[in-house]
Amino acid sequence: GMQSHLQALLSLYKLFCPELVTITLPRKMKTYFKNSEGPWKAAISAVRQRNQGSSPLVQAAFLGTTQLQSRKRKWNSQLTVPASSANNLEENTAKNCVDLFSTNEIFPVEQLQTFPQLLQNIHRLEFPSQMGSVLTNPLLLHYMNCIRDESIYLRLYYWMGQVLQEECTWCVVDNTDEKEFKNFLETVYKAECFLQEGFSACEEFLCKSLPLWDGSSCRPEVFKLVSWIPLSSFSEIKSYLYGPLAQLFFTSSIYFKCSLLESLKQLLQNWLNCNMIYMDPEYDS
């Protein structure tokens, strides 16, 4: 029958091999297949507009997106730990009430200053509303390591993914502040080193942005993020990451080649260290 998804598939065949499809298809139909040339056209347009310097448009070259909203915030404005929202709410609404469960009350996260405080109140903390403050706070990073709360990681990855996408200097036309973006990538890298594991948001960012990377912008920081790619299947890494890096490798200077090899060597060491944690003691050798 003439279901909409079959019509879309037939129209795709008719576009590339018209001799295979002899039936007449309606002109207006639902789009099921995205244009594969979209990201490349957006990237070429971004380079052209950056060189001309005449267009104020903000155009993203990430897969699946064509235009980003204007950047309303700066990531480094959220590095201070804000007061706990739940704690403020409790003070305002239950000031005159007797708390029968005072041992379980929320410990204000902005008062967390020492490691002993973290140990004593680890089950009474509420994560701050501004996730940017977590990356530069060792105590909160310790908390992430100890309390495996999936909601915390989801919040952090969503926030980090948005910032990486909006601040990427080679994917957004009017974003020329490379120094600020470098500082953010360096902060993310230091947090990964502290946690001894990579962020999935960084892996997703690398998969989307490396095919459009010129090999020059933020090079040291990008290689540092590559060294902390989380453990996954080799087939996925080969297609999404090693393919674009190989193209740059064969056309770049000897310094680029050595830097990339050093990054991949560090990636292998990080993987081995992660595997050692979960290795069976019987197979130490």
UniProtKB/TrEMBL annotation:
Entry GO CC: inner kinetochore; nucleus
**Which UniProt keyword terms apply here?**
Centromere, Chromosome, Nucleus
Q: Which Pfam families match?
A: CENP-I
One GO BP annotation of this record: mitotic sister chromatid segregation
Is the keyword Chloroplast assigned to this protein?
no
InterPro entries recorded for this chain?
A: CENP-I
**Main location per the UniProt record:** nucleus
Q: Which family does it belong to?
A: Belongs to the CENP-I/CTF3 family.
Can you name this protein? CENPI protein
